[in-house]
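For the sake of transparency, this paper describes our internal protein records without simplification. An entry from our holdings is shown next, in its original layout:
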Amino acid sequence: MVRVRVLSLAIVLAMTVSAVSSAQTEQTSGGGQDVVSASTLTRTHTIAPAWPQSAAAEVEGWVLLRFTVLPNGTVADVKVQESSPKGVFDASAVEALRQWNYEPVERDGKKIAQRAEIRINYALPKQGSN
């Protein structure tokens, strides 16, 4: 129980959420909708991902996610783009991101759905840290 709490606390403290190049915008195939870096959006509610029980205690990694911020600010259509190690942190990252909220994106005075991309890093506390 204490180990799980320590790892959960470590993920909250050591998890860094980095968006892929804040100035980067990518045209997606098919929908024609731009995918923006999540760092260009304003988060209003965040849930830290849980450290998966299946992950070895010494394993660190990351998950690159693509998702849609709906006109009401909720997150939908979360898809894993890449991850390392593959499959270890994917479900945890998706579950957490689905609970996040953002300020709605507006264009021409209307709230719109916006595709975005974010990388969630899973890092263990450094040796000697409390």
Summary: The first helix runs from residue 2 to 14. The beta strands are 16-18, 25-27, 34-37, 43-45, 61-69, 75-84, 101-102, 105-107, 110-112, 114-122. The first strand starts at residue 16 and ends at 18. The helical segments are 2-14, 90-97.
